[in-house]
């Protein structure tokens, strides 16, 4: 079995169908939800790391002091070149831990079903190459990654906020959007954050629309999750080492 550490910062953003996709590809999941579950001090014994989303800020240590430990693990994973995937808050924590900049989005929140598009570097990336040019995702965030960490490769972008997906070194990834949600989870977020929900297109959060977009997400991102497990298991070659020292636009 390919053992993965799953960090779940928020009870409201569970692993969802992503967990099913990972386990059906042969992964064993060790899910930790801080502060209830203690985080490991090192990544020894793990073949990969996934950090999910949450309602807190990436640097909100005063309210959530354990965030510093999450960033430390993400920094360790980057240094070890351990296959890693940060999702929404996870991507922001990864950026903050490795020299990027996370801020409140100047153009307001991104909320609801959306599309992101592949950048040039994605076409030769082991996880992103087989994705379609435009990918269905769920957005639900106020904070954004304003500056990628040094050396990061930009893999996907969107009109409002450019830094939607990136890779550090050979196998450490961050995606600003969600691929792990269910229609019920998104509806609950909308109920909890009505001011954000009001910013979506008319009908975007209706049950039929959310069911449809989640079917499209599964078609695209289930194989992506399978490739991540293969990468963690050593069955899929990591990306070539980037020669760049500045973020790739």
The assigned structural class equals alpha/beta
Query: Mind describing the biggest β-sheet?
Result: 9 strands, mixed
Order of SSEs, N→C?
A: EHEEHEHEEEEEEEHHH
Q: Helix proportion of residues, in percent? A: 25-40%
How much of the sequence lies in strands comes to: 15-25%
Which regions have little confidence, pLDDT < 50, spanning 5+ residues? 245-249
Oligomer: single chain
Give average pLDDT, whole number: 96
Q: Order of strands in the sheet with the most strands?
A: 2-1-3-4-11-10-9-6-7
Count of runs of 4 or more consecutive helical residues: 6
Shape: globular
The radius of gyration over CA amounts to 17 Å
Number of strands: 11
N-to-C CA distance? 37 Å
